[in-house]
Amino acid sequence: MKDRKRLSTISIILIIELVVMIILSLVVTKTISSTTRNSSMDNMQTITNERAHIIQTYVENSEKILQYYSKAEQITNLLKDPENSLLQAKAQTYTESYSNDIKNLEGIYVSEWNTHVLAHTNPEVVGMITRKDPEPLKQLQDAMLSVGNDVYDTGIIISPASGKQIVSMYKAVYDESGQPIGLVGLGIFTDQLVNTLNELKIKGVEESMYTMVNVADTKYIFNNDSDLIGSTSNNKSIKKICLQLSDANAKTEGSFQYKQNGKTYISTYTYIPKYNWLLMLDDTKDEVYSLSRLMRTYMAIFGIAIVGLVILFSFITKRQEKINQKLANTIIKSNKTKESLYTAMFKDVLTDVRNRIAFSMDFEGANSTEERPIYFVMFNIVNFSNINSRYGNDTGDWLLVRTVDILNQIFKNSRIYRTGSDEFVVALQVISAERKTGDILGDAKEAYQRLTLAQQTPTMGKISFNYKVSVARKIGPINTSVITVLKSMLNKNPDSEHGHIDFSDLGS
Description:
CATH architecture of the domain at 354-507: 2-Layer Sandwich
CATH class of the domain at 354-507: Alpha Beta
Structural class: alpha+beta
CATH superfamily of the domain at 354-507: Reverse transcriptase/Diguanylate cyclase domain
Distance between the termini: 77 Å
Number of strands: 20
Largest sheet: 6 strands, mixed
């Protein structure tokens, strides 16, 4: 009787252990699967945001090209005296010379306010009136006047002249009294932009594709199927999002799921409010969640192994203690695996510094005081995508690692974050009595000088790289908006590419 009772008690204990292990395995599987899935989506969203930044930068650079052209002496003098043949010749010579330095250019020109062309990349167009109909002409004039001295972006369109996709923009030129005396126009082919995006390989989502639509009319700007470019999207999700964003004036991001040709796709999107464009990165659901399924498979195998072990050990009562120890070790290993997955979410693998998610976790809700302020220093690698395109991804990766090494050498006792594909933020809290703003700016300048020195790269010889730098001091509550402020300082400072470092005291 005692033996039977003892056997029954052991059986109950083993059953309880079996149930506990199954539940634990299910919980761990669900947690890891959910974390992996969220990480995959976050990765896709980060990639989409980076690509949107590349597109916006491409268009903004084109705007600068037109701005500089409109301010040239040869152009402004001609518009003041459009009948002067000598000024016409000078403007034409300048236009052709200026065009030689612009990559992927369809055409750039200057005309009178009625679109009578005075100088053009293509001399054959000189003397023509590009908009003869009064209504389209007035629409263009009103659009340029509505933006004042800024550039009026027509958008990414199919050029009626070349039949190719271009970035089209115009800018009014005013006299001293503020009256429009003419305009300049620019067309830049999008081939280089599309090639740049396609050449940026995305590890783990090889089947991905880019799609971009104009929110105003839901027409495709980019699409994997070239026949759809310029046509209205039939995707209900895209139409719904465009409707929701019709009155939006701030950057918006998100994701949605849809079916097409028998496949289910996951799409992450970023809204570019400045141009009213919606950029999407689409990939098959199978590929996006492949790592999550793999983890579930591993965990299922792991769970089955545990069940098998428990059943086997039920017949080996004399080794019960050893079995319990093995199960405990297995649980510890599972928890360490879970901990490693969480750690991977907050670290940039290439440079071994913390990422933007970690920045948000570290500073969201944090506070600093007047006695112990926090300084944030942003370093942005100029034209990083072009560096990868021109010298290769290995050189680009080497440059990222070198950037972190130099920042670590100069900014002691600081935390470095990679907040974007081409940008790093150094965060350091100081004692105001010991270190002043001038000291931080001095370190930032030293870092800039060292970073921009010509360096011997591993494969491409000696190369110089350029950086933009901005510095902000913050006391009081801190959140991730400091990154936006630092970026805005870089974008608004035309001299930032020439070593000028902007500083902003954000106060409290």
